[in-house]
Amino acid sequence: MAYKIALSPEDRSTNTYHPQALYRGRSTNEQEQMRRCADLLEKELVRCGFEVKNMQYGNMYDRVKDGNNWGADLYIALHTNGFDGTVAGTRVHCYPSDKSRKIGKLIQARIAPLSPGGSDKLVESATLYELKATKMAAVLPEFGFHDNLAEAQWLIDNMGTIAAETAQAVCDYFGVAYGAETQKTPAVTFEVRQVVDGQVVQTWTLA
Ligand SMILES: [Zn+2]
Q: How many whole angstroms from 146 Cα to the centroid of ligand 1?
């Protein structure tokens, strides 16, 4: 049976990114970028054999309830951070349990070296609702600071990498092989028949 991953991307579009950080030539916000992240991550995880609930609806109370009722094995709340524009770096929040710490460290180790900021840390929290009210391992990555111009642009431009690295951390956590996307060449075969006097006397299959 496939492991079940619940994704809860930020739902507030009022969390605006730095106004000069552009996505498709315009400014953007945390809801839009984290929904992008959730969609990319869902594709990665499904390809690796996971079942995914991509919860782009309701508030955190609805999502925690649905994740718990669904019986998710892992809950990931997807976020980017905001402070005063001067701080940058990756901060992964996790519930203070062995399994939540394990996935927190795996995500932190992959994303922090890539993000421009150096203010990286793993933050244990027993009070964040999506970490404390979830029954399964739960983690809340703040991939970077979206009010810092350099980091906001990095987030926008590297969301595919962020999703791929997060998917690899999830694979490591469950001991599942990460299958990178490969160009599959479809197998083409030809059948050759030797016909003598209307009778097939021999057939070959050529690859
Ligand atoms: Zn957020």
A: 10
Distance 28 CA to ligand 1 centre (A): 14
Distance (angstroms) between ligand 1 centre and the Cα of 25 equals: 23
pLDDT number for residue 199 = 79
Longest dimension (CA), the chain: 87
Place of tokens 């922090």: 112
Residue 192: what pLDDT?
Answer: 76
* Ligand 1 centroid – CA 184 distance (Å): 37
Domain ranges of the chain: 4-203
Query: What's the CA-to-centroid distance between 129 and ligand 1, angstroms?
Result: 13
The hierarchical CATH code for the domain 4-203 is 3.40.630.40
Please identify every stretch of the chain with a pLDDT value under 50, giving residue numbers as ranges. Answer: none
CA 5 to chain centroid, in Å, comes to: 10
Buried b (16+ CB within 10 A) or exposed e, 77-88: bbbbbbeeeebb
- What is d(CA 42, CA 142) in angstroms, rounded to the nearest whole number? 18
Specify the pTM: 0.86
